[in-house]
Amino acid sequence: MTPYVISKASPSIRRSLAETRFHPSAGCLFKRSVDIVGSLVGLLILAVLFLPIAVAIKLDSPGAIVFKQSRCGLGGRCFTLYKFRSMVQNADALKALVHNEAKGLIFKNKQDPRITRVGQFLRRTSLDELPQFWNVLIGDMSLVGTRPPTLDEVANYNDRHWKRLNVKPGLTGEWQVNGRSSVEDFEQIVDLDLRYQQRWHPLYDLHVIWKTIQILLNRSGAY
Asked: Are strands 78-84 and 142-144 parallel, antiparallel or unpaired?
């Protein structure tokens, strides 16, 4: 975790971080095996689709093909998250000009003007997230877990919010299979993340993955 995030955390949070025992899923060999197999399959799909997606992104708007951003993972540790770029190149600089329609420590806008035409398609189909299979393969993420928050979000976390980081961030999770982008209250997302920790067992991830596939085929809840 970066000094910036640590300095913004309250003393009680800093004490709890030092005493944290991560959720059993973080050290589960079966879960890690599923992650490795799933990420390899995902990277094969990425290899097939990379060129047409890259060409479409470049033709649609100037800028990088792959978007990189610092996110917080297990225990608040920072890592670099990879996605196909779905916004204009200077999207972060324009964020303050866009109204946040969500409640709490998460940012959402259904008609976000920073999203490109190709980006809208990539988001609806979740193809923008294909590069994250690399994050899963190297162990920064899991196939199933919590949404990986940004540093500015984590800087405002309270003790309850930090508990969602006792598991690895995931490509999918309870939030994605229970409303996805239609869930606009951060506290509800935290509830879902904590429910995942309560319900989790090694085979539960397979259940969430299957539900995710069904949702992706129906293209529900994404924008």
From this structure: unpaired
Cβ-contact 145, 167 below 8 angstroms: yes
For residue 71, the surrounding DSSP H or E stretch is strand 66-72
Q: What is the pLDDT of residues 140-168, one digit of tens each?
A: 999 999 999 999 899 999 999 999 999 99
Among candidates 110, 116, 118, which has minimal Cα distance to 180?
110
131: helix, strand or coil:
coil
Across-strand partners of 60?
none
pTM (predicted TM-score): 0.86
Q: Rounded CA gap, 120 and 142, in Å? A: 25
130 with 46: CB under 8 angstroms? yes
User: Alpha helices of 61-131 — where are they, by DSSP H?
Assistant: 91-94, 117-125
pLDDT per residue as tens digits for the range 113-140: 899 999 999 998 999 999 999 999 999 9
